[in-house]
Each structure stands twice: as structure tokens, then as C-alpha cells.
């Protein structure tokens, strides 16, 4: 791809927009970030807090540990941590600097203050409003569409900031993702000047491998990585799955190590990168080859999620794990034909995995999705594939990806509602939190 191609700079910009550090599951961290912004705006300790959240946010906050809180979970704990100890200028690392001594202060705020959670009626998949009250004063921060997209800030009746002119794709503030396609992604990965992305991708390697190693070495979540290795040994195909799963287990259980996210998700960031790094080290790939393979995996993940949406009943680990298979194909010398077949084969295998919120079982779903990505490539090498007309598979990788987007975005909308009803109880839109 020539540097004059409109996709060239756009793809660089997309990677810089998507590959950002975050500490903890991104939905509770978004709550903490909004709460910290609102506290700074209020300029006083709030007496009352109202959290207005869409159901998909609740789904992804309910079961994960909020990092640096001493093991607390839920929407109220996320907001309390942001208010008491968050640093809003750290954005998705808003809780990174919380001291252990502040855990008790967070717990006291949670126990003593009136923190109300109500359901958003905006109709948006991702919508969060934090309102803080102190005496006659009120501060409000609203985040919509994605985790850092502040669309409204109010101090009493004064609008401090407003940007409501954006849809879910937020094309006015983010680079146009409709430019993405598999052929162009591969051309870009092969030709881009790596100096423009090396530091970004090295950060992804360093952060995501560190939490993966921590996940294997510690006792986190369901310890899926250790189970895989203990059961099937240390072959690279198992190790790639195990380390990715271990990173997720640590992250879901409150590990305070940061992750470089993809498409708004740390689990997707881990699944898209860790297996590729594991394979590169096994193969003895040079640094540049690894970086180009990560570009393939990251951008194909983002491409898939553009059609599906950031939050859905369709598990994002599927998108990332199958894309990791594409990055692994690249490491073995595969280009468009190999990668396209790998992706379609993998998606045809695991596209039925649902998202029922962030929690330890995400690690198992990551392991299954990475396995499908590896299987997709091994199928291609042996002359095996799924054909157009086989279920949701259609001739041509982009046509199949459009079907996946339609399935995740439209077809699973009612599934998403039913999942939330099952998780939260038919008679209560939001969980009782302790």
C-alpha cells in the first residue's frame, strides 16, 4: 500500500485510537472515569450519587472485581472508587494510582453515601450518566457510544461541554472504520513504516504478556490457563490459548496490571495479541514480522467489531481469537488467501458464543476462540474449508463478515435482552449490590 492511499494514514490513526492502555474491565472503569470527572466538576465531596446506565453496561460490570478497591464489585463500587480516589486525567487508567490505604475510604463512601442506580431510557447500547449532588450543587457527566466519549458535562444548569452530534460509529471524533477490509489490511501490514507504530505495538506486547504471565503464575478466576497446560501440556497451540485465557482470568478478577485494549475491550486486546506473540516466539520470528502480524490481528478484530458494535450479545472474544488465527497465519508466511480462509473457517466454528457479561468464564471463551483461529489456519493448510452456503458462510470473506455483523448487531438484539433478564432477574432491571 502506498503512503498516498487514503487507507494508509487512516489505518495508523485507527490503531492509535483503539490500542490504548486500561486498567481493569473497561465498563467499570468507564463508570469510575465519569465519576472522577463529575467529582472534579462538582469541586466538593458529593452527598448523593445517581448512576444511570444502559443494560449492556450493567451486564459487563455486575460480576467483575474493580481493581484497586480491595475486591469490591459492581456499579456503585466503580463510582465510589472514581469519586474517592480516581484521577480523571488518567482516563481508562483512572484507578491506577489508588493507594491501599484508600480502599477503606472507598468502602466507607460506598456504605455511607446514597448511591442510586437507575436504568437508562435513551435506547443506546452504551449510555452512562453520573450525577453528583452536594447541597444545592449538581455535576453531571454523560458518556455515550464508547468508553471515553464524553458527550455532556453540566455544572448545575450550565453546560460545561456538549457533543451530542455523534452516532454509535462516532465518525465525527474517530477515524472512519468503513475503510477497513481484509485485503487492504494485509497490504497495509506488509508495507507500513513500522516506525509509526512500533512504540504502540511494543506497549501492547509488554502490557498484555505481563498480565498473561501473572495470570498463569497466580490464582486468578477459574485458572483456565493452568487447567489447559496441566491437561494437554506445553505445546505452542495450548500455550497460546493458556496465556491468553490467563490474562483474562487475572483481569476479570481485579488484577491491577494494565492492558492495551482493542475495540474498547481488554479481553479482546489480550486475545488478539497474546497468542500471536506466543507463536512468534516459538517460531523465532523477528521483531518486525511480529509487529506486522499484530497489525493484521488488531485491524481484523476492529474490522469485525465495526459491523457488530462495541457491546452485543455476540462474544467479542470470538472476533479477537479468530483474528489471532489470522496473525498466526501471517507469521507462517500466509497472506490474503491464507488469512481469508483462516478467518472464515474460524468464524464458522465459534460464531454462536454469546456474551453474558464480563466475568471469569470470558477466559474459557477466549481459549475456545483462539483454538478456532488456530484450527481455521490448520484447516487451510490441509486443503479443508467451509463453503458459501454452509450456514452463515457466504462466498468471499467480506460477505461473510457482513453476515457476522448482521448476526451480532441485529439478529442477537433480542438474545441480548433475554441474557440481561436472565442475569439480573425478570423483576429487577438492576442487581442488588453489596
TrEMBL record:
Classification lineage: Bacteria, Pseudomonadati, Thermodesulfobacteriota, Desulfuromonadia, Desulfuromonadales
Family: Belongs to the UPF0597 family.
One of the GO biological process terms: L-cysteine catabolic process to pyruvate
One term of GO molecular function: L-cysteine desulfhydrase activity
PANTHER family reported in the protein's UniProt record: UPF0597 PROTEIN YHAM
Pfam families hit by this protein: SDH_alpha
InterPro entries membership: Ser_deHydtase-like_asu, UPF0597
Protein name: UPF0597 protein SAMN02745165_02120
Domain Serine dehydratase-like alpha subunit: 92-420
Amino acid at each position: 500500500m502506498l503512503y498516498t492511499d487514503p487507507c494508509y494514514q487512516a489505518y495508523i490513526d485507527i490503531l492509535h485510537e483503539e490500542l490504548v492502555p486500561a486498567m481493569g474491565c473497561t465498563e467499570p472503569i468507564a463508570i469510575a472515569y465519569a465519576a472522577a470527572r463529575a467529582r472534579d466538576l462538582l469541586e466538593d465531596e458529593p452527598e448523593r450519587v445517581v448512576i444511570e446506565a444502559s443494560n449492556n453496561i450493567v451486564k459487563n460490570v455486575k460480576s467483575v472485581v474493580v481493581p484497586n478497591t480491595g475486591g469490591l464489585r459492581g456499579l456503585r463500587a466503580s463510582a465510589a472508587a472514581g469519586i474517592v480516589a480516581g484521577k480523571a486525567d488518567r482516563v481508562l487508567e483512572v484507578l491506577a494510582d489508588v493507594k491501599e490505604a484508600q480502599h477503606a475510604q472507598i468502602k466507607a463512601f460506598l456504605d455511607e453515601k446514597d448511591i442510586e442506580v437507575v436504568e437508562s431510557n435513551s435506547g443506546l447500547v452504551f449510555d452512562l450518566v453520573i450525577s453528583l449532588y452536594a447541597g444545592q450543587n449538581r455535576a453531571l457527566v454523560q458518556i455515550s457510544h464508547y468508553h471515553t466519549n464524553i458527550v455532556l458535562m453540566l455544572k448545575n444548569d450550565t453546560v460545561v461541554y456538549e457533543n451530542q452530534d455523534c452516532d454509535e460509529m462516532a465518525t465525527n471524533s474517530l477515524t472512519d472504520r468503513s475503510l477497513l477490509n481484509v485485503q487492504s489490511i494485509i497490504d497495509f501490514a506488509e508495507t507500513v513504516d513500522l516506525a509509526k507504530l512500533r512504540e504502540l505495538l511494543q506497549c501492547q506486547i509488554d502490557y498484555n504478556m505481563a498480565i498473561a504471565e501473572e495470570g498463569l503464575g497466580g490464582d486468578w478466576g477459574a485458572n483456565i490457563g493452568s487447567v489447559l497446560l496441566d491437561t494437554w501440556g506445553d505445546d505452542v497451540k495450548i500455550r497460546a490459548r493458556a496465556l491468553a485465557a490467563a490474562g483474562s482470568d487475572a483481569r476479570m478478577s481485579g488484577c491491577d496490571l494494565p492492558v492495551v485494549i482493542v475495540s474498547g475491550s481488554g479481553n479482546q486486546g489480550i486475545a488478539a495479541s497474546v497468542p500471536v506473540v506466543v507463536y512468534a516466539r516459538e517460531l523465532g520470528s523477528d521483531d518486525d514480522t511480529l509487529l506486522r502480524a499484530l497489525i493484521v490481528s488488531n485491524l481484523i478484530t476492529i474490522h469485525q467489531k465495526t459491523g457488530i458494535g462495541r457491546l452485543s450479545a455476540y462474544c467479542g472474544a470470538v472476533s479477537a481469537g479468530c483474528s489471532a488465527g489470522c496473525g498466526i497465519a501471517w507469521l507462517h508466511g500466509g497472506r490474503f488467501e491464507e488469512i481469508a480462509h483462516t478467518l472464515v473457517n474460524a468464524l464458522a466454528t465459534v460464531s454462536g458464543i454469546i456474551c453474558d457479561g464480563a466475568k471469569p468464564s470470558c477466559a474459557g471463551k477466549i481459549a475456545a476462540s483462539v483454538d478456532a483461529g488456530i484450527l481455521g489456519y490448520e484447516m487451510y493448510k490441509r486443503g479443508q474449508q467451509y463453503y458459501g452456503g454452509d450456514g452463515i458462510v457466504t462466498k468471499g470473506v467480506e460477505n461473510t463478515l457482513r453476515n457476522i455483523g448482521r448476526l451480532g448487531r441485529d439478529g442477537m438484539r433480542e438474545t441480548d435482552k433475554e441474557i440481561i433478564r436472565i442475569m439480573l432477574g425478570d423483576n429487577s432491571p438492576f442487581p442488588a449490590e453489596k
